[in-house]
Amino acid sequence: MTGRLARHRSTLVVLAGLLVAVAVVALTGRGATRTAPLDPDNPDPAGAQAVARVLADQGVDVAVVRDADALEQTRVDGETTIVVTSTDQLGRSTIRRLRAHAGGARLVLVEPGPGTVRAFGVRAAPYRVLLDGPRAADCADPVVAGLEVEVDSAVEYAVDGGCFRGEHGALLAEPRPGLVLLGAGEALTNDQVVRADDAALALRLLGRGDRLVWYVPTVSDLVGDDGVSLATLLPDWLRPALLLAAVAVVALMLWRARRLGPLATEPLPVVVKAIETTRSRGRLYRRAADRAHAAAALRAAARDRAADRLAMGPGADPAALVRDLARHTGRPVDEVDALLGPAAPPPATDQDLITLASTLAELDREVRRP
Questions:
Q1: Any domain includes 233
Q2: Rounded to two decimals, what is the model's pTM?
């Protein structure tokens, strides 16, 4: 038992230090204003103040920068580790500035999303998973060999190699030398750093050198062309799939249209006499008590017949038609206008409608007389 304690003495010391740091953060961090997740000055459960303080206590020079300008003014070299949290706040311009300034420094990205990993040359999209227990490193990396990580949720990266592998990829991946993707970001938080070997993972990953630059990007660093569009959020495999689906739909439409053939006219199965249609329409008007519509139909038909009889042609001017009818029949202009004019009043009763129909029939007979 004594020998086992001696072998794990350093781990126990680090764990005790983290517990003390968490307690100090909980007692003294009431006035803190930083609330972003994994912020090194955030004392809340989702913050990472405990890890930052323990790293500083272990002799690591921790420099916190919160915008791209401050990052470019911070000295970095081959012995510097740059950890980037709040990676969802990165854009094309800030990623470009980060890569240019990092140089030969070791870069650790905490839970980067699809757009961020694509900008760093990783084509496979990350996959968020839920962990139901500790996951062993199960890799040959001496930094995390023998450790177990335990968090509620994490992000797996489908790259070759990596540690803490699951169904869709690794929680800790190094797609190329100097670039580390940490999918278990919750291992750095104040409330989960003491679970399993999360503390050892955080300190070994971020405390490998004597200097740590903790970069917390913000949206205020973004420029106008950094906007996120639907195309940037879609995985690469979905675009050809959508194109293939569109081609299939067009092909289906052409196939169905060719199968149906061109349009063809067919004779009606029965012949409906015009008088039957007229009577049916009249019954509908009567049932609806629409005397104005019926009167308008009668007057329009009478005007068409009169214009044809007087050789005035279709679309004759109503006022000219009224004058010619009055001259041809010998009736006063006002009387003809009250019968056929566009401003003629509609009949008030059914009897008035019958009288109008009889008068129009008589006028039609007068027009036909030579």
A1: no
A2: 0.56
